[in-house]
Amino acid sequence: xxxxxxxxxxxxxxxxxxxxxxxxxxxxxxxxxxxxxxxxxxxxxxxxxxxxxxxxxxxxxxxxxxxxxxxxxxxxxxxxxxxxxxxxxxxxxxxxxxxxxxxxxxxxxxxxxxxxxxxxxxxxxxxxxxxxxxxxxxxxxxxxxxxxxxxxxxxxxxxxxxxxxxxxxxxxxxxxxxxxxxxxxxxxxxxxxxxxxxxxxxxxxxxxxxxxxxxxxxxxxxxxxxxxxxxxxxxxxxxxxxxxxxxxxxxxxxxxxxxxxxxxxxxxxxxxxxxxxxxxxxxxxxxxxxxxxxxxxxxxxxxxxxxxxxxxxxxxxxxxxxxxxxxxxxxxxxxxxxxxxxxxxxxxxxxxxxxxxxxxxxxxxxxxxxxxxxxxxxxxxxxxxxxxxxxxxxxxxxxxxxxxxxxxxxxxxxxxxxxxxxxxxxxxxxxxxxxxxxxxxxxxxxxxxxxxxxxxxxxxxxxxxxxxxxxxxxxxxxxxxxxxxxxxxxxx
Length: 492
What we know:
- It is a single chain.
- The protein is α/β, with parallel strands linked by helices and 492 residues long.
- It folds into three domains: 16-196 and 219-245, 3-Layer(aba) Sandwich (Rossmann fold); 256-338, Ubiquitin-like (UB roll) (Roll); 343-439, NADH-ubiquinone oxidoreductase 51kDa subunit, iron-sulphur binding domain (de novo design (two linked rop proteins), Up-down Bundle), CATH 1.20.1440.230.
- It has 17 helices and eleven strands.
- The strands form three sheets. A five-stranded mixed β-sheet has the order 6-5-9-7-8, with helices on both faces. A four-stranded parallel β-sheet has the order 3-2-1-4, sandwiched between helices.
- A hairpin with a 7-residue loop joins strand 7 and strand 8.
- The radius of gyration is 22 Å and the shape is globular.
């Protein structure tokens, strides 16, 4: 089965003129012919699900935002381009090859939810993507595509949680990327109250937990947050119709998905496949399959969900398919491990990433996460005891308690699944039957150079307080950073 090109063009589109010759702009033209309800109805009928990881139905999200519109302040559209899931490079690839479809999709979204502002939330480190998006915005503004809508590219921090949609909104409002409880359809970017005590919570938590007050109508504007790949699908759905979109994929996961394959494969790469393609075929098409003479042992969908053992690789790559085996599609980034890889080291590396990137608003997530990472590193280095293994099992059950975002749940699911599927490899280290190995570096992709993945090696030196010094301050990020001031560079 060949790769497809609904969202990811085979070559870069270099100008708005070229984009238009390739049928670009027809989505916004079609959107101007109908009202907002009809737009949203088309999207609902298409079955498009968000490509940022959770897979929430996009049409339902748009309708919810529209129904929660404020009479006081305008709704905002935010395009989440803060890609940081380990093993994922698809949003940056889309923005490099075709920024115009992302912007056109966002303009259609703005029309549907009544927004007059669109913010593209990228990372400052994404230099090529920031440049491409800004240049494309200028072209589209000059051509009159965005009349009445303000378009802004925001350059945010490198932190993993910046990609969590409520943490992204916190950052856009001048604070640090700490997740809130209130969903974006209830509270958008603009802060309405100054402090937690203003609404009687007395919490003082960094992400303004007062924004979660149930049932209170303070006139706060909702915000529509959608992922880059999600937005890139919108123009063709609106111009060609819901039935066209459903001609590919599965009933529950229509369309295509852009996947990233890295790890122990013949090559690293990004490609677009039909939803429902068996995961083994996805790895073959994009990554060339396992290295010569090796066999795949397991696959991690980033650090967002459970590991997938080799015997389940024929599972369809769809939301329902991977959920059916207790894992998930995530953001389409798959880290592949073969029979030379040590899963104890993988568990230690993934646990460290999640523990470091936890903000510390939820005590179990940070405290138990750091303990998990430390114990798993001891296992990997063959320094752990049977008692340590038992403690790891206990911590897996507590790390997600009271979690306000998904990070703690991710930690529980990922480490728990490795204990279940590959517990013998961890036990071998405890018995002294496996050699000492350092934890595998599990971190964000910096880029793809040819067939090689380039990883964020700097993450090896990142401290639990989000600094990069030789010593940790002993304070968690939520304690160390003042939420009532504009963020300073987080690496300081």
